[in-house]
Amino acid sequence: MFPSTEWALSHRRAVAVAAAATGALAVVLLVRRARRRAAQPRRKLDEEEESDYEEEEAAITTLAQLRALRAPLLPLAAPAVASVCVTGHSLHLAAFPPALCALRGLRELDLRGNAIPALPAGVGRLVQLTRLCLSGNLLTELPPQIGKLQMLVDLDVGSNRLAALPAELGQVTTLRFLNAMNNRLEALPDTIGDCTALVRLGLKSNRLAALPASIGRLHGLVELYLTDNLLEELPAEMGQLRSLVKLQASFNPLRALPAELGRLPNLEMIRVASCNIAEVPAALRDAPKLAWMSLASNPACRTLSPRKLPTVEVKDLNMGRKLGDGASGEVFEGCWQGRRVAVKVFVAERSPDGHSRDEMAIAFCVNETHLVKVVAQLKQPLGLVMEFAQGSPFAEKPNLQSLLRCRWGTGQTFELAFILRVAIGVASALEHMHYRGIAHGDVYAHNVMVSEEGHATLCDYGASFPYHKGGPVSYEAHEVRAFGLMLADMVRRMDIGFQGMEQLLNAQKELLAVVQQCCSGPPALRPTFGAVGRRLKTIQKAAALAGLANVTPRSGAASLASLTPRTCVTEFFSPRSDVTQTLHD
Question: Binding residue per annotation — 148?
Answer without folding.
Answer: no
